[in-house]
Amino acid sequence: MLPPIPDLEFNAAAHRYRYKGDWLPHSVTQIASPKTPLEMERINATKDGPDGWMARGNAVHEALEKHVLGKGVIYDTRWGDWVNPLCDHWLFQGHKVLATEHALVSPKWRVAGSFDGLIETAKGSLVLYDLKTVSSAKAAKTREAARAQLGAYSLMLLDNYDISVNRCVTVISGPGVVEVKTDVPDECHIAWLDALDNWKLLQPEW
Question: In this structure, are residues 105 and 118 in contact, taking their beta carbons and an 8 Å threshold?
């Protein structure tokens, strides 16, 4: 397993990262997937409650992490249609785990974030993956790949650990369906750098 990066902390209450005692102004998600106020209003409208997307996302992420780590899977049965196909997927069979829910930082970009998993597949491919959950099988088909987000993590893995991944994979979990969208790292790097350039144009402190 990858060791944690020294002096990198995550404050869950503030949902912010601190590196060497300094608060970082931005996260990978903020830059890779910027949202307008109207989009945030719509997202927050379906966030909370026992059936909200936050409860679903947390439950499914936790279940997959336990499965990947071989710790057994215990979850609320309401999420079984998401969890069972995900844990049965070929990507998560016969693998070796290098990291799960792992925080990374880029001092030069003043950015930090946490990726969902880094595994070596049964065929020896080094795969960086990000899990997304959606409310329907139709949404799983149309959900876009998280290229910019994965590109940031891939570049930060290279900077922090000298690790080059073979594939960047967006795993999309819906009820009864798993969609896996695979990209080569270079495409994701370009997507991240484009997103970063666009973000900088809107930020006076950059």
Answer: no
Pick the CATH number of 8-201 from 1.10.10, 3.40.50, 3.90.320, 2.130.10: 3.90.320
pLDDT digits (tens, 9 = 90+) for 106-158: 999 999 999 999 999 989 999 999 999 999 999 999 999 999 999 999 999 99
Cα separation of 15 and 33, whole Å? 16
Which two structure tokens, joined as six digits, stand for 4? 């944690």
pLDDT digits (tens, 9 = 90+) for 44-72: 766 777 777 888 999 999 999 999 999 98
d(CA 45, CA 76): 23
State pLDDT tens for residues 26-40: 999 999 998 777 767
Closest CA to 180 of 125, 116, 119, 129: 129
Q: SS3 letters for 15-45? A: CEEEECCEECCEEHHHHHCCCCHHHHHHHHH
Cα separations in angstroms, 199 against 7, 26, 31, 186, 192: 26, 10, 6, 20, 10
Where in the chain are the domains?
8-201
How far, in Å, CA of 174 to CA of 134, rounded? 5
What is the distance between the alpha carbons of residues 8 and 113, in angstroms, rounded to a whole number? 10
